[in-house]
Amino acid sequence: MDILPKFRLEVYDNEMIPDELLIQSVDFVNEMLPGEGFEPADFKKIYGKTCLYKNIFMYYMNDKLVGVCTCNFYPDPDPERSDETLIYMMVIAMDKTVQGKGVGTKFLRSILQMNNQSDVWIKIHKGNDQSKGFFKKMGFIKMPKKSMPEMLNPSYRKPYEVFVRKCGRAS
Fold first, then answer.
1. 170 in a domain, yes or no?
2. Of 65, 71, 68, residue with least CA distance to 47
3. Residue 64 forms beta bridges with which residues?
4. What pLDDT digit, counting tens, does each position of 9-34 carry?
5. How far apart are CA 89 and CA 69, in angstroms?
6. Cα(78)–Cα(63) distance, rounded to whole angstroms?
7. What DSSP string describes 79-146?
8. Does residue 11 lie within any of the structural domains?
9. Is residue 28 one of the residues assigned to a domain?
10. pTM for the whole thing?
11. How do residues 111-144 score in pLDDT, each as one tens digit?
12. How many separate domains does the chain show?
């Protein structure tokens, strides 16, 4: 009989995450995404004047960290939807040993379900076809760069493409 893995999602406001978990999440992302060189300050920083808050999501499988995601939350600039938020997914990284096994899908679905009234935007490196395919499978669509709201446009180090997953409301 196979024992099913136990999954646990921990969500921290960037101001509430304990320092040791912040460092662990940054180290994890840097290991999974070589060349990025994130610092703890990158994960703590609130980007832009209108950013409401940032969450750091840590995903565990059998008590082993297998995924980290950071999201910045902004008010929707559309006056008709000013009570809604937009999400900029700054980074998402999965342990390479679980990639292709549905764990990343489960992780992202849990984040999207918690934020199902928000449009979620992400920038993906131009050459990262695996990530582009994954996000398309998860309901994200490629958009022109100029369609990304300006407030969600923090600097980005590499050439990128923009993807968005619209929430369930009518556009």
1. no
2. 71
3. 61
4. 999 998 899 999 999 999 999 999 98
5. 7
6. 41
7. GGGTTSEEEEEEEEEE-GGGTTTTHHHHHHHHHHHHTTTSEEEEEEETT-HHHHHHHHHTT-EEE-GG
8. yes
9. yes
10. 0.88
11. 999 988 889 999 998 888 999 999 999 999 999 9
12. 1
